Amino acid sequence: MVGSAAVRELLLVVAVAAVGLLLAMAAAFTPWPVTPGGSAPSSLVELHGPPAPAERSDSAVG
């Protein structure tokens, strides 16, 4: 039967895609160790604010 082979192949493709999605989510959301023996908090992006502006020295002669 041609129909059952096509359904079986489609189910295999969907199963492999689901396993790949689960692995990608596990890699994205599991905490990765920063130092040996310690773990970092789970996050995708580490956010940093802009650096503080440098103070100007007006005492320079120019």
From TrEMBL:
The lineage of its organism: Bacteria, Bacillati, Actinomycetota, Actinomycetes, Micromonosporales. Residues 40-62 are annotated as: Disordered. It comes from the Bacteria. This is SPW_0924 family protein.
